[in-house]
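# step 3/5: fold
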Amino acid sequence: MRRPMLSYDAAGLFDVEAGLPSNFDASWSKRCQAAVEALQQRTSSGELGFLKLPEQNLGQLMTWAEGRQAEGWTDQIVVGIGGSSLGTRAVLEAMGPAWIPAIRTHFAENLDPVSLEATLRRVDLASTLLVVVTKSGTTIETMSQLWILYDAMVRQLGQVQADRQVIAITDPERGALRALARERDWETHAVPPNVGGRFSVLTAVSLVPLALAGYDVEALLRGAALIVRQGTRDLVGLAHISAQHIALYEKGFGQMVMMAYADRLGGLVDWFRQLWAESLGKARDRSGQLVNVGITPIKAMGAVDQHSQVQLYMEGPNDKQLLFVETASHPVGFQVPESPAMPEGLRHLQGRGIDEILRAEARGTRAALSRAQRPTALWRLESTGAPAVGGFLMSWMAITALAGELLNIDAFDQPGVELGKIIAHGLLGHPKHGQFLDDLESTPSESHFSRWPAD
């Protein structure tokens, strides 16, 4: 029997005292069907585009990437943050690291001057492409670092050559970056207007830098397509997974730990964390009623966090849903060698592969959590090749969108992050965003300050 590309085991959500009842699927059936119909309607109308992304023909992109590779570029710096970089990083880490990348990839994400300096030291700007990703062109972190890197290129290579090395991935018509790209004649790739940033991993946002790095982006889309190829039938199954998490949330399990049992799966957890938090953490539902909903996503790494977080998960508040993520195969392997010096209590490890040991640790941890009446589930990728990774990405985008429908909230906006951006612009001197500065600059009460050493 052919092994599945991706599998999901939810038994641990049911087999605990406070978990889901045996009639769960039947009780949520109508709501799940309605959620699927609502998502399909929004997709058919053109409002939402992420479900249709696997239908893209990437022939032109692959030809372009091969042409750019042939020009001899050694590195690319992807300048973006959040949905503009997390998906790219997740795929690069999961599918690789590419043992011999066509073009080495670096990221300029957070505004950390030490990290930016380290990136500049690692590359030769004369053979480096600058790939800037922002749909709006007004992302403060991205545009600040773009201008620093571009200025460094201009000073070293001249503006004509620097302009040849910039690739802008942005809105097809509007925005500050699109206007700048037109002015400077930068090469551009478009992000579909109906695909939001955190749902954009299967657009040019990630496909362009991944293709430049030599990754099999066509197989990534094939894997994503397998998740939704049967339309309503597949989406109803994913809606029931959304419903499982919402039902547990309603029982008081308001935190979701995703624990990856392979270092290279950590980027996928980071990507999931943004997708889930920004999509489902909302103050109001679609009717405007104050609801303040959201399941808090938490990242954990197995087996490392068995030694730091699992004690809390086992014996602390029983308010967490725990999702294990593992891969069934690894591209390389090591075995514990036989040695007479091996302590007697560890001799059973001799000849065991470290992948086998890791799987045993995952199974043991999950079993222990279940015994402690903690709800668990398991996602298993057949490998971390492109199809399985693409399938995982599409699964969680659909699960998240369907969760929004079940919660009656808009999973595709993020009003909660806008105010912080406005205040930051005001602090930096933006003429239209200074209205909050009086409150910020007032002197706080000394009773709320601590200093070391004391005065």
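# step 4/5: annotate
The first helix runs from residue 11 to 14.
# step 5/5: archive (pending)
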